[in-house]
Amino acid sequence: MSLHATHRDAGPITVVDLSGRIVLGDGSALLRKTIRGLLEDQRKLILLNLADVDYIDSSGIGELVSGYTAVKNQSGDLKLLHLTKKVRDLLQITKLYTVFDVFTDENTALRSFV
Amino acid sequence: MASDTKHLEVALETKVDSVNLAEEMCLRVAEAAGFGEDDCYRIGMSVREGVINAFHYGNEERPDKKIHLAVDLTADKMIIHVLDEGAGFKLSDVPDPLAEENLLSTSGRGIFLMRAFMDEFTVVSGKTGGAEIVMSKKLPAPGSASPNGQGGKNATPRQEA
Fold first, then answer.
1. Is the confidence at residue B46, as pLDDT, over 50?
2. From CA A109, how far away is CA A111, in angstroms rounded?
3. Is residue B151 part of a domain?
4. ipTM over 0.90
């Protein structure tokens, strides 16, 4: 299943709803393009909704980290919402769970940017 | 090779699609061998990472090189070999992705994931001179639950592609 991405604005924050697999190839490329596009539009507060992402490989992890760093370098913030069990486990064993701000409730996540 | 070992071997093109193909092939073997959903996920992910490693680091994405994938299904485990045609590497030279200074690295987690997800993992110098990843997962005990509801340890892997 390839990756699909749509985004919606919640005030200054952009929520990106992702579904599918973030893996080497088109999935990672789409995530990169989406985040870079938002930064070009000066949308620097980004919440990635991963509720429908059930698979990420090391390439996808690398792209998440790359996006996080790119956003931070522009004084923005990138946070994660609704991790599936597999994705949460993956971020935990790679110690990235401690790097990203992760939320299970969208309103709480949105308020955390203020 | 023991007579009860089933063997599957294929040479893959050095391209992104080979990563998905290798994963699908090994998942079919793993499901037929009776692995449950969680172990199939771990095996599939490890195969992906092994082939990504061969594609990107070993063969340096050069289309004139091949990625050699082999699967052995023995009486007690599934063994996966991923061989590239690169210059080889030493595991001791691979940075620790959990080290503080590497946490925000955008690469270098593949070897770690294969080690975490498989029962046995090593890298040897292959017959091509490249690196050969050898990793295995112990087969589920006979009669153990099979969430996929497919196959058993005596199921025969089919040759794909």
1. yes
2. 5
3. no
4. yes
